[in-house]
What does this fold into?
Amino acid sequence: MAKPMLGEMLVENKVITQEQLDRALEVQTSEGGLIGIILVSQGVITEQTLVEYLARQAKIVTTSE
It folds into this structure.
């Protein structure tokens, strides 16, 4: 099973909007960087939210392997 994308998880759980993700992805494409860090730097999510969702992502990957 493929690792769920962080941005997709955040949109799916209504933490961010698709538009916010799209803007962050544009920054990632033009400047590089990690999507979670970009979302934090844009003020869209907090560091706490990022850590929480990275932990969820890791748990999903570990559980389903």
Summary: The chain has a mean pLDDT of 93. The two ends are 7 Å apart (CA to CA). The helical segments are 6-12, 18-31, 35-41, 47-64.
